[in-house]
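Action item from last meeting closed. Structure (215 res):
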């Protein structure tokens, strides 16, 4: 991961923000969202969302999806769901959780275009569990939208690292593990663009004013 916010591409226009960050162009046309801690509350005590009733939207998340959709932004969810690989839930159970997520998002006007997940336990050493980049690269491939127009959004260091390894820009939201992640990055001297929640980020994306890290 880069140690600073960069505006490397020639098509980007640095602005004079005090922290040296940049308003990015080209416009974001695709967001790849982490799930737990970004869209929904994390399960208690490091547990897992195992049934649809445990999928609990974070405040503003549904409104954020609707706003992104109104702005013509493609929405992909890309999530590690190791509970499947750990034998704690079946693929069908995960599908039922995602069916609820998709339905409620659509009912709110924020339909999800694509939902990708890694079902593997860490021991499987697959190449799709974030921070590995494959899930994100697959999301870009399936979208038909250039990586430069894509933003990865997460609450965990793993999300940001996966983005960096996929050559994609990223932003942190301060829900879920987000505050702890930012504190950890700050201790390492890394300044990361951060938003209070997905709604604040969606407003910035819709206004083409989102700050992003890397690539
Ligand atoms: Mg998360
Ligand atoms: Zn995997």
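Sequence:
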């Amino acid at each position: 991961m880069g140690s600073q916010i960069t505006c490397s591409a020639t098509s980007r226009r640095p602005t004079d923000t005090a922290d040296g960050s940049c308003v990015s162009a080209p416009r974001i046309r695709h967001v790849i969202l982490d799930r737990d801690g970004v869209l929904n509350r994390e399960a208690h005590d490091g547990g897992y969302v195992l049934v649809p009733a445990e999928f609990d939207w974070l405040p503003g998340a549904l409104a954020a999806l609707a706003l992104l959709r109104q702005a013509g932004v493609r929405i992909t969810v890309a999530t590690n769901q190791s509970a499947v690989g750990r034998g704690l839930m079946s693929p069908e159970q995960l599908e039922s959780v995602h069916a609820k997520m998709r339905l409620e998002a659509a009912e709110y006007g924020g339909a999800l275009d694509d939902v990708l997940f890694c079902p593997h336990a860490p021991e499987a050493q697959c190449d799709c569990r974030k921070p590995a980049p494959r899930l994100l690269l697959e999301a870009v491939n399936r979208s038909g939208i250039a990586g430069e127009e894509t933003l990865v959004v997460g609450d965990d260091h793993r999300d940001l690292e996966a983005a960096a390894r996929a050559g994609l820009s990223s932003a942190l939201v301060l829900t879920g593990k987000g505050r702890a992640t930012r504190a950890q990055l700050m201790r390492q001297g890394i300044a990361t663009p951060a938003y209070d929640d997905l709604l604040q980020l969606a407003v910035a994306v819709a206004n083409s004013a989102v700050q992003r890290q890397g690539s």
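Note appended to the action item: Confidence is low (pLDDT under 50) at residues 1-20.
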